[in-house]
Amino acid sequence: MATKETKISGKKQYLIAYHFLYEDGRTGVGELISYIDNNIKIDSNVIQNWKEFLKETNGFKNTVILNVMNLDNL
């Protein structure tokens, strides 16, 4: 699959890989693209925000962030 590279001025692009669990026991893995301002350091608060976003928008019982990759460094 071909993807279009997107560049947003003043922001870094991150690929977040995560594992999720639904209330009924189903599990899986997924990925999320996130754009973060250049001046924000990726720390536990940012990771917690991603986890909460994924739980709230997808109805997951639990989410574990597996990997965070800065795509601008590739």
Provide structural commentary.
The protein has 74 residues and is of the alpha+beta class. It is 20% helix and 42% strand. The protein has one helix at 44-58, and strands at residues 11-21, 27-37, 62-70. A hairpin with a 5-residue loop joins strand 1 and strand 2. The radius of gyration is 13 Å and the shape is elongated. The model has no long low-confidence stretch (mean pLDDT 90).
The overall pLDDT average reads: 90
Largest pleated sheet? 3 strands, antiparallel
Strand content: 35-45%
Structural class comes to alpha+beta
Low-confidence stretches: none
What's this, in brief?
This protein is of the alpha+beta class.
Secondary structure blueprint with pairings:
Layout: E1 11-21, E2 27-37, H1 44-58, E3 62-70
Task: Sum up the structure in keywords.
3 strands, 74 residues, alpha+beta, 3-stranded antiparallel sheet
